[in-house]
Design brief:
The chain has 268 residues and is of the alpha+beta class. 31% of the residues lie in helices and 31% in strands. The longest helix is centred in the middle third of the chain and has 23 residues.
């Protein structure tokens, strides 16, 4: 693992965009960006804000692992390689302004809106679309809205839905194998352009920030719901997911986060 030096490595690079959980910087080659994972935590469209120390380090590793596995089954992604504890090199894409949410179990807003008990298994997987706009609260939209307003074409929508189901099938099995139920998760997609033609690839990240992950035996939440619902133990939950995925030898994750915390305290 590569550790950062005394100066922030992005100080000499141009910042392209800063979101709630990540910062994008100009990449070393045309068509690339550097994605930096922050410890900032938000919920309810940034109405609730906080910090989960070490979250960025863990999400970087988890997302790298998941995207690498997905590429192995033929899912095209923006991920190129991890650079260090908090950064990865990615392809620059034109983000489609739609969040794709895949649900296997009733939880979160679905339980609240429909009055169905959280934890109720769904008889079939549901794919939902949300328009990406914080000011509007990321409203739920239909495929008719998406096509009418030109946010994506029919072919792009088909590709996103198809990939979402394939990702769900793969990740459900992956997490079940380590005793975790994949309740639901969100995906973002982007366009890669080749002259006048574009294709859709998976973008953003896949981590406990954007997935609901429950222990299959105890039902314990191992995701950002611990922050949303003031349950505490957020770092430990993210660490547990990383450990079960085999990303850290026993105890190494704590050592890495301790080193990262020490570096931040010294202002490096």
């Amino acid at each position: 693992m590569t550790f950062q030096g005394k100066k922030h490595p992005m100080a000499r690079r141009r910042q392209i965009y800063e979101g709630k959980a990540k910062i994008l910087y100009e990449g070393p080659e045309p068509g690339t960006l550097i994605q930096y994972f922050k410890d900032d935590a938000t919920a309810f469209n940034a109405q609730k804000k906080g910090t989960i120390n070490g979250k960025g380090v863990l999400n970087n590793r988890i997302s790298e692992h998941v995207f690498t596995l997905l590429a192995g089954i033929g899912i095209p992604t923006h991920f190129i390689r991890r650079l260090n504890m908090r950064e990865q090199l990615i392809r620059q894409v034109e983000i489609v302004p739609i969040e794709v949410v895949v649900r296997n179990v009733v939880a979160g807003s679905l339980a609240k809106k429909l009055g169905i008990e959280e934890g109720t298994p769904l008889p079939r997987t549901i794919v939902e679309y949300y328009y990406k706009d914080d000011a509007l609260g990321d409203p739920l939209v239909t495929d008719e809205h998406i096509l009418c307003f030109g946010w994506a074409s029919q072919e792009e929508l088909h590709d996103m839905a198809d990939m979402a189901i394939r990702v769900n099938d793969f990740l459900s099995g992956l997490f079940a194998g380590i005793g975790i139920r994949l309740v639901d998760f969100k995906l973002e997609f982007g366009r890669i352009w080749d002259n006048d033609y574009s294709r859709i690839i998976l973008a953003d990240e896949i981590s406990p920030d954007g997935c609901r992950l429950w222990d299959m035996t105890t039902g314990e939440k191992l995701d950002k719901d611990r922050f949303r619902r003031d349950l505490g133990g957020e770092v430990e939950a993210y660490q547990e997911v990383a450990r079960r995925l085999g990303l850290f030898p026993e105890g190494e994750d704590s050592a890495v986060l301790d080193l990262e915390s020490h570096r931040k305290r010294r202002g490096k």
